[in-house]
Amino acid sequence: MTQWFFELVYTLRGFLQTFGAMNLFFLRIVSYSPRAIIRRFPLVIRQVYNSGTLSLVLIMVCGFFVGMVLGLQGYDNLSKFNSEDSVGTVAALSLLQELGPVLAALLWSGRAGTALASEIGLMRATDQLSAMEMMAVDPLRRVVVPRFLGGVVSMPLLAAIFSGIGIFGAYVSGVIILGVDGGVFFSQMQANVEPVHIWQGIIKSCVFGVAASLMAVFEGYNSIPTAEGVGRATTRTVVLTAIAVLALDYMITAAVLALTD
To answer: Is residue 209 one of the residues assigned to a domain?
Structure first.
């Protein structure tokens, strides 16, 4: 019993230490970001390309098939209540408010987040970051901040593309395959989707972009300088990002519902 208690205390202390270190790391990134945007704008754009553009194929393919599944499931369930014309509304609301931002963040973490963590972790393992410090170059400004900003900028764009392609997938399965009237599909969507639903998705995608990018660069920058340490940092990036995204999704949804009621 005593050993279990001390293990719990040790785990909780480690979590609080990591959480505090991550917050301080985030504050340093925020303080360096305005200068990085001005002085290293081409590098930031290159990281937007690496994080966002190179993830487009994955986002579009997954978004299309998620939308098709929503169309099929929505039609099957709504047809029991003679409301199959609302397939477009169900798909749009699901994608804009929840599935678009959440799945885009999780997919980005699995593709770009792990790449960022392993890239920075490899630079740590091969002493490249230490070499920068010896040459009076701050690796946080030169390496971490542009990659963080690239993830933050690309996430809302990827979430918007995911939602748009998902709606098209729902149109294909609902209208082209199952025979729902196309005009009703879009008119119901236009009548029921309000700006608050769109803004909810935008806010979530921006918050998820900050959280997912922070997890990736933090784990890579603070990884153990060994091959095993880099692999562990990559794994922790995906796990912690998934937990953070789902927890933040609940908190943002609860806040929006409380404000709109």
So the answer is: yes
What's the helix, strand, coil split of the chain in %, to 5? 90, 0, 10
**Is residue 3 pLDDT above 80, yes or no?**
no
In a domain, 3, yes or no: no
Q: How many structural domains are present in the chain?
A: 1
Distance CA 116, CA 213 (A): 9
Could you list the residue range(s) of the whole structural domain that residue 150 is in? 43-260
Exposure class string for 173-209: b at 16+ Cβ within 10 A, else e: bbbeebebeeeebbebbeeebeeeeeebbeebbbbbb
**Type of residue found at 184:** V
What predicted TM-score, i.e. pTM, was given to this entire model?
Answer: 0.91
Q: Tell me the per-residue pLDDT of 107-156, one tens digit each, with 9 for 90 and over.
A: 999 999 999 999 999 998 888 888 888 888 888 888 899 999 999 999 99
Spatial contact of 248 and 203, defined as CB atoms under 8 Å apart: no
